[in-house]
Design brief:
229 residues, 15% helix, signal
Length: 229
């Protein structure tokens, strides 16, 4: 799938960012009132359609969702587990919000070029028979003030758009449109994902991200790659 290349590029960026952080540890980071997007989820699919201006459906989705964090931490999550938005599910807080209504970028291959759109995501629904994941969405403006986190994939796209470089940004949904070879990049901040319910523990909490729930592969350390270490 062509969109797997996006994930590889993103992974390289995270590794490079981790190296820069180690080299420049003494340099103060620019002040920001927003949480840093130190966690990114990537869900790829063969197609994306927009049944309405407030609905996104990913078709022929990958069986796993990739996640990347600062310092080259990475792993896989089952797509059905990740996209379960019912009450009590792993990624749903006690207030009923899936992943705290995250910001995301949908990238797609469009002939000889690419295109992207900024979205706010809610209430994913996985359909095993159709291999689809359907989201309720709202289109976000290309404005840093509209984003929940800082230094994420969404922020980079907004900066590129302001400088007239990078992937062309679509700023409105066309109902009925179909995009091919897509990858959905979801920005989040680990600290802000602490559960509201005291009895619930997010799977990445604990030393070295070692407290995983269910059957997932992940890299516990900063060094060499290998799933489930």
């Amino acid at each position: 799938m062509k969109t797997l290349a996006y994930a590889g590029v993103l992974l390289a960026l995270f590794v490079a960012a981790g190296a820069r952080d180690l080299q420049q540890a003494s340099a103060p980071a620019p002040a920001t009132s927003k949480p840093i997007a130190d966690l990114v989820f990537v869900l790829s699919a063969e197609k994306a359609s927009f049944p309405s201006s407030s609905t996104l459906q990913l078709k022929e989705v990958s069986s796993t969702v990739q996640f990347y964090g600062a310092g080259a931490r990475a792993g896989l999550i089952s797509t059905p587990v990740f996209s379960n938005s019912s009450a009590g599910a792993e990624y749903v807080a006690s207030n009923g919000e899936w992943l705290n209504v995250p910001d995301a970028v949908l990238f797609a291959n469009s002939g000889s070029s690419n295109q992207a759109i900024l979205l706010s995501l809610q209430d994913p629904m996985y359909n095993e028979d159709d291999e689809t994941v359907t989201f309720s969405i709202a289109v976000l403006p290309a404005d840093e003030a509209a984003l929940k986190t800082a230094r994420g994939v969404t922020n980079e796209l907004v900066m590129e758009h302001a400088n007239n470089v990078g992937t062309p940004l679509t700023e409105a949904v066309q109902p009925g449109a179909v995009w091919k070879d897509v990858a959905l990049f979801i920005d989040q901040n680990r600290e802000s994902l602490k559960p509201i319910a005291e009895t619930k523990t997010w799977w990445w909490w604990g030393p070295g991200w070692g407290g995983g729930w269910g059957g997932r592969g992940y890299n516990r350390g900063w060094g060499g790659w290998g799933w489930g270490k």
